Amino acid sequence: MKTLFQNIIRTALVSAYVLVLYYNFTYVGFPSRKNPSKNFGGKYEYLTVLNLVFLTASLTFSFLCELLPIGLNSNPVHKLKGILNAASATISMFVCLAFWSIYAINRELVFPAVLDSIIPPWHNHAIHTTVLPVSLISYLLTPKSHAPRFATLMCVASGLVVCYTLWIYVIYLNTGRWVYPVLAVLGAPARAAFIAACALSMAPFAFAAHWIKSRFDAWKTDAAKAVKREKRKQKAKAKKAQ
Questions:
Q1: Helix orientation angle between 47-67 and 121-128, rounded to the nearest 10 degrees
Q2: How does it sit in the membrane (predicted)?
Q3: How many structural domains compose the chain?
Q4: pLDDT digits (tens, 9 = 90+) for 97-150
Q5: How far is it, in rounded angstroms, from Cα 133 to Cα 108?
Q6: Which long-range contacts (CB under 8 A, 24 or more apart) does 44-50 make?
Q7: What's phi and psi for 69, nearest 5 deg?
Q8: Which pTM does this prediction carry?
Q9: 88-123 exposure pattern, b = at least 16 Cβ within 10 A, e = fewer
Q10: pLDDT at residue 213 greater than cutoff 90
């Protein structure tokens, strides 16, 4: 029953985000820039879109591991599933909190008003808000034995951020523009400090994801022990009654 419930949840999550990804690539289009060279990177220049792809891939991989165990039921594969879910939860937490924090200060820096006519509110929340609870749920469903250690999670998450930072500079070198307006506003020293802060910020986000997972696993263990104790009490009462 427990496995069936978890599979139903995984099916719902992966189905929802496959549809979100399909909608994003099919119906969400950004205006083409007059200079073709300025279009370098396309949608893939945005961390939000890359995170959406990464989250959907992680959910799909976990779904296949659970429902199609043949050839996927090896320990290394399940370890990889745990790393993907943990990294996805960490990056999604960063995307959600960073986006809405900057949005609250000045939305034009991360989500200009012109995008309101391109990205509907529900889709905006699907890629900037619900990615956090969805990725956390997927991570919490990962067995404790398959979850990565904090050091492993930190290295993977930081590595992904470094790769994205390099990608931002590749886009700038090819187009002469920054992906996010906030980077254009900042001077060179402030920009370097901002990017470094974003990379270092993976530590608290990775710690938060790891802590939530640890507390959830501890709660599950305590709940299972409580159920066993209650069953033993019920059996003891039944024996006395006889």
A1: 70
A2: Multi-pass membrane protein
A3: 1
A4: 989 998 999 888 788 888 888 899 999 999 999 999 999 999 999 888 888 999
A5: 26
A6: 45/167, 45/168, 45/171, 45/179, 46/179, 47/95, 47/164, 48/95, 48/99, 48/127, 48/128, 49/24, 49/127, 50/164
A7: -70, -20
A8: 0.85
A9: bbbbbbbbbbbbbebeeeeeeebbeeeeeeebeeee
A10: yes
Structure tokens at 166: 């390099």
> Which pair of tokens denotes residue 132?
């956090």
Range of the domain at 69: 2-241
Phi, psi of 141, deg, nearest 5:
-75, -15
The pair of structure tokens assigned to 158 is 């930081």
Under the phi-then-psi rule, with left for phi > 0, alpha for psi from -120 to 50, and beta for the rest, what region is 49?
A: alpha
Is residue 1 predicted with pLDDT exceeding 80? no
**Two structure tokens written together for 20:** 């979100």
What single string gives the DSSP state of each residue in 103-163? HHHHGGGTS-GGGGGTS-HHHHHHHHTTHHHHHHHHHHTS-GGGSPPHHHHHHHHHHHHHH
Residue type, 25: F
